Amino acid sequence: MRRFKTTIVGAGNVGSTLAQRLVEKQLTDVVLIDRVTDRGEGKTLDLQQSAPIIGFDTKIIGTHEYGPTEGSDIVVITAGFPRKPGMSRDDLLKTNVEVVAEVTENIVKYSPDAIVIVVTNPLDAMCHTALKVSGFPKSRVIGMAGVLDTARFRTFIAMELDVSVENIHAFVLGGHGDAMVPIPRYSNVAGIPIPELLSQDRIDALIERTRNGGAEIVSLLKTGSAYYAPSAATVEMIEAIMVDKKMILPCSALCEGEYGIHNTYVGVPCKLGKEGLLEIVDVRLANPELEMLHRSAAQVREQSAKVDSMLAEMAALRKPSKKK
Ligand code: APR
Question: Do 69 and 205 sit in the same domain of this protein?
Fold first, then answer.
């Protein structure tokens, strides 16, 4: 039987933790690639040596060249540079567009049928970059954001109410980061909507903490950004795709009319299965919620326009100049 193959680009904190989670669960063979020679190789050797103790037989290869990634079913892009304290996700835009564009070209070359999951920030703009550079259908370019944002919201609700995190379903839409749009009336504890359990003030405080969830960790860590929760969120998406679960998860997807949003990557409920994004679930929202979502989409559109000009500049630089 052919084994499922996942490539993780970027053997940093998110990439290597993701590799560990995938091989320990014996979900898929993994190729971990980094542009820094020997980083992927070193991490995978260490992981391989944990196999007899943990007890897994999943194959894992470390590399700094794309050859071994050939024919991957899923490619996760974590390559890039994380935020430093005080740095916004937007500051990262230019650097990471170049990284994601280069990585995507190699995905097209070595794994033209892969489903691409983007993790690199600023997330929605990086999804736009990967879609543009790959020319893949939107079903095969999705972003990890909402699963992480909802996990943060669920964690804070559970801490506030002192109940199991498993009892909590949360609903978060919009762009990843400051522009996210949590919807409290669709968020519940064992089926009970949270507005029936918490005051508006407390809900607002939890929403604020969720919005700043990534920044709070960045300022605590001093160097680097979150990776345990981002890698766990990515595993949930990979599993939904691999097992053709048709699971509805909040992801960044290209909206083409859903929620009245056009040609923009934004966090929406997505049904995931073996072809990637099977459907964007278009839920009815109240006017203020819709307005917030549209504001969030407008921010992403602004960034995506910047990405388009950066890509055009990069393409122009590559063209050989005509000799007179
Ligand atoms: N090709 C392959 N690997 C690359 C490239 C590239 N072009 N550019 C950078 N990398 C690698 C770096 O060498 C590094 O090992 O990407 C890795 C990034 O790892 P970290 O710096 O540890 O960053 P991490 O915490 O894993 O976050 C990665 O995920 O959540 C987001 O905001 C975060 O954009 C960041 C990304």
Answer: no
What is the reported pTM?
0.96
Q: Which residue from 18, 64, 78 has its CB within 8 A of the most atoms of ligand 1, so it is best to mutate?
A: 78
**What is the four-CA torsion angle of 84, 85, 90, 96, rounded to 10 degrees?**
10
Residue 272: CB atoms within 10 A of its CB come to: 29
Tokens at 117, concatenated: 């999951």
Domain assignment of residue 247, given as a range: 146-305
Comparing CA positions, the residue from 249, 255, 254, 226 lying closest to residue 237 is 249
Domain count, the chain: 2
Phi-psi region of 270 (alpha: psi -120 to 50; beta: other; left: phi over 0): beta
* Together in a domain, 127 and 150: no
Q: Are residues 28 and 157 in the same domain?
A: no
* pLDDT tens digits, 174-232: 988 777 898 999 999 999 999 999 999 999 999 999 999 998 998 999 888 899 999 99
Among 64, 128, 176, 262, which one carries the catalytic annotation? 176
Determine how many CB atoms are found less than 10 A away from the CB of residue 212: 15
Q: Which of 25, 85, 51, 37 is nearest to 231 (CA)?
A: 25
- Clarify whether 169 is annotated catalytic: no
